[in-house]
Amino acid sequence: ILSLCPEIKWHFIGHLQKQNVNKLMAVPNLFMLETVDSVKLADKVNSSWQRKGSPERLKVMVQINTSGEEIYLFSVSFLEGKHGLPPSETIAIVEHINAKCPNLEFVGLMTIGSFGHDLSQGPNPDFQ
């Protein structure tokens, strides 16, 4: 693809495990990571991007779990089944990225609303 589209800019969307950060940072033309969901992940991405030696800061979005939906795994409830931070932690991680991660550029928030919302009842409150 790179030979046909040398200007392509890749966005990574999805949960990123810390052990896969270095593999992702090696992707040519990586432009944005849309799912930073912890300070530890931000720190790991920041240091890996620095080692890559890119002259550009990597654009990142912080993933917030606005729906609070639960998932069940082996009959155990997980409140943050969808990945992402609780809304109450948003300011702290954004401040951390801006102050402690010089190789990252915070560009916004990413969230996924609840799947079961009935749009006939109006807009999904997860996005308001």
Kindly describe this structure:
There is one protein chain. The longest helix is centred in the middle third of the chain and has 14 residues, at 39-52. This protein is an alpha/beta fold. The protein has one domain (10-112): Alpha-Beta Barrel (TIM Barrel). It is built from three helices and six strands, in the order E-H-E-H-E-E-E-H-E. It has a four-stranded parallel beta sheet. A two-stranded antiparallel ribbon has the order 4-5.
Oligomer: single chain
Low-confidence stretches: 76-80
* Overall tally of domains: 1
Number of strands: 6
Q: Can you name the CATH architecture?
A: Alpha-Beta Barrel
CATH structural class: Alpha Beta
Content-based structural category: alpha/beta
Gyration radius, to the nearest Å? Answer: 16 Å
Question: What order do the SSEs take from the amino end to the carboxyl end, as H and E?
Answer: EHEHEEEHE
Largest sheet: 4 strands, parallel
Name the strands of the widest sheet in spatial order.
1-2-3-6
Q: Indicate the overall shape.
A: globular
CATH topology term = TIM Barrel
Helix content: 10-25%
Beta-strand residue percentage: 15-25%
Number of helical stretches of at least 4 residues: 3
Mean pLDDT: 85
What's the structural blueprint in terms of helices and strands?
Elements: E1 10-12, H1 21-25, E2 30-36, H2 39-52, E3 58-63, E4 71-73, E5 76-78, H3 90-100, E6 104-110
Parallel strand pairs: 1-2, 2-3, 3-6
Antiparallel strand pairs: 4-5
GO cellular component, one term: cytosol
Protein name: Pyridoxal phosphate binding protein
Keywords: Pyridoxal phosphate
